[in-house]
Amino acid sequence: MTPEKTLWRAVLNQAVIDFACPGYEYGLDRALVQRSAGNWFLSSSRSVGSFLFICEFLSINPAWFRKQLFDTSIDTLKNRVSTQHRSRDKLANVAASE
Question: What pTM was estimated for this model as a whole?
Answer without folding.
Answer: 0.70
